[in-house]
Amino acid sequence: MALENKTIIDSVVEEKEFLVNTRRHLHENPELSGEEFETSKFLKNECQKLGLDIHNVDGTGFYAILDTGREGKTIGLRADIDALPVKENNLNLKNNRVCKSKVDGVFHACGHDGHMAISLATARILTKHKDKLNGKIIFIFEEGEETGVGIDKMIKALEKEKIDAFYSNHLVSFLDTGKIYIGDGPVMAGCALVDFTIKGKGGHGSRPDLSISPIFAAANVLTGLASAWANRVDVTKTVTLGLGSINGGSAANVIPDTVNITGTLRYFDLEEGNKAVGILKKVGRLTTEAHDCEFIANKINVVASPVINDLALAKLARKSISSVLGDNYLAYDSNWFASESFSKYGSLAPSLFALVGTKNDIIGSGAEHHNEYFDLDEESLYYATCSMVKFTSEYLNNN
Fold first, then answer.
1. N or C: which terminus of the chain has fewer CB atoms within 10 Å of its end residue's CB?
2. Peptidase M20 dimerisation domain: which residues (predicted)?
3. 3-state secondary structure of 212
């Protein structure tokens, strides 16, 4: 029999102080992708206090197993543990922060501090009530989500565990605190990295005719891409082209040899994403050749598939979460164009990704992710933990 709603709510309320204190500790002590040594040590220590069976993965990632001692399904609950190379502002959108990073230039600007606190609080609650549960719960702490350095190692390590389903949530700044979005199908975008160089022939700015300017070639490539996106990408399957940098030259009177352009593509339909990659390469190559320059594709390829929710798990999640929190807590049509390594867990078993709101205009949370003003409303930790505990309980005890 699954945990009763009152038991879940009372348990999460009891964990509120732990949730807040843990989140603040992790926020104040962030570590970059692949360097989460103290973070990993802290998380393992908390798991050891609960008697969980810890399995190290090459690097800083690991997973911890709670075995109820009864036959049943196995569910993986995932949290990411890395911070970003972003300098944190003393303010959020409105007020002074309740806590601030102690590491200059390193900042939990995406909510991973909250994700770790939620997973630990969930582990504490489920361990306390494991006599009412069946099967196994695997708490996954993934290294380097922001750079992708940990996901493949984690997937390989988890293959032997025969997990039946995966669940994770992400605190998001575009939903109000208390709102939870559990969509059917794609909920986060896939991503393709874009990095190409246009090589010409440098020379003196007074005689451009004796040079081959990669700058004009680059300008025409960008114009051609804008036209291609308007005319060749399926309007019902949106693909965004976000170019983040263009670098070439360093002086007004010197024509450079090369121009480098970088960015990303985002998409919810993998086939259309692959088509867009082909369009970008073709436009870049042919336009560059027309200017007698060379097109060098340093990296133009898909690096992440869309995060796609399993329909049956999404239905169960909406039903279970609305039963403990109420229907008014469910949000609709909130797909996110950001990308996530969580998509790869779907290669092992059906997976579910919930978006949990953390926007609160009164306290000043709601800035974009990866932004110096990004902040969490700590009240959102309560809703995320309720959701994770409830869904896990329902899944394990639902035949």
1. C
2. 194-273
3. strand
Check pLDDT > 70 for residue 1.
Answer: no
Q: Backbone phi, then psi, for 333, in 5-degree steps?
A: 55, 55
Using only the alpha carbons of the chain, give its radius of gyration.
24
C-alpha–C-alpha distance, residues 353 and 391, integer Å = 12
Q: What does the block give as tokens for 179?
A: 């709102």
CB 221 within 8 A of CB 291: no
Percentage of residues in the chain with pLDDT exceeding 70?
99
pLDDT above 70 (res 11)? yes
CA 96 to chain CA mean position, Å: 26
Using CA atoms, how far apart are residues 5 and 7, in angstroms rounded to an integer? 5
Give the pairing type, strands 190-199 and 294-304: antiparallel
Instruction: Please compute, for residue 250, the number of CA atoms within 13 A of its CA located in the half-sphere on the CB side.
Output: 1
Mean pLDDT across the chain: 96
Q: Are 258 and 199 in contact (CB under 8 A)?
A: yes
Residue 337: count of CB within 10 angstroms of its CB: 14
Q: What is the pLDDT of residue 175?
A: 97
Q: Give the pairing of strands 74-80 and 136-142.
A: parallel
Count of C-beta atoms within a 10 Å radius of residue 383: 25
42 phi-psi bin (left φ>0, alpha ψ -120 to 50, beta other) = alpha
How far is Cα 83 from Cα 321, in angstroms, rounded to an integer? 29
Instruction: State pLDDT tens for residues 98-140.
Output: 999 999 999 999 999 999 999 999 999 999 999 999 999 999 9
Backbone phi, psi, residue 151, to 5°: -65, -45
DSSP 8-state class, residue 96: B
Query: What sign results for the dihedral spanned by CA atoms 27, 29, 32, 35?
Result: negative
Alpha helices by DSSP H, the chain: 5-14, 16-28, 37-49, 112-128, 151-158, 214-231, 270-290, 311-325, 380-396
Angle value at C-alpha 232, between 228 and 236, nearest 5 degrees: 125
Q: Could you give the CA distance from residue 130 to residue 138 in angstroms, rounded to a whole number?
A: 13
**Whole-model pTM?**
0.92
Query: Is the alpha carbon torsion for 21, 24, 28, 32 positive or negative?
Result: positive
Which residue, 27, 43, 1, is CA-closest to 132?
A: 1
